[in-house]
Design a protein that fits this description.
Layout lengths: L8 E4 L6 E2 L6 E5 L5 E2 L5 E2 L3 E6 L5 E7 L6 E4 H8 L1 E5 L3 E6 L5 E8 L2 E4 L4 E3 L2 E4 L6
Parallel strand pairs: 1-8, 2-7
Antiparallel strand pairs: 1-12, 3-6, 4-5, 6-7, 9-10, 10-11, 11-12, 13-14
Length: about 140
């Protein structure tokens, strides 16, 4: 399983589920409808498929819905905490995912334009976030 970074992954505290706009990284797919989703612009969108996504060696998302017209990917913080059994903390520039039991860092995001973006280029070594490299979105 490769890492999935074709579209940016936004860490979203208001999202109630994980959602993505491409099927390229969705594995163990199955047809699964959910209630229609209303986007911030008021448009309604329907999920056509569900599956799992592996963002890194330590971060995998379950029950991700595919929304064909979505131009980014959304990570629901509440679902992430359940999927990865982790806690999330943030500063004004970083968002850190820590294993709930060991408190070891398993992932990170960086803040850009008022949003936090999951970063595969961030280096988490021995549970410590060493660096997060700026990537263009």
């Amino acid at each position: 399983m490769g890492e999935c970074s074709l579209l940016p992954w936004i860490i979203d505290t208001r999202a109630t589920l994980h959602a993505m706009g491409t099927l390229a990284c969705l594995f163990d797919q199955y047809e699964g409808s959910v209630s229609p989703m209303v986007l911030p612009d008021g448009s309604v969108i329907h999920a056509t498929r569900r599956g799992r996504v592996r963002l890194s060696d330590t971060v995998s998302l379950q029950n991700v819905v595919y929304l064909p017209t979505l131009s980014c990917n959304l990570i629901s913080t509440s679902k992430l905490m359940d999927d990865c059994s982790c806690d999330i903390s943030s500063t004004h520039t970083l968002c850190i995912f820590q294993d709930r039991t060991t408190k070891i860092a398993i992932g990170a995001g960086e803040r850009r334009d008022e949003l936090y973006y999951f970063s595969n280029s961030g280096m988490v070594l021995g549970g410590t976030v060493l660096a997060v490299q700026q990537a263009s979105v």
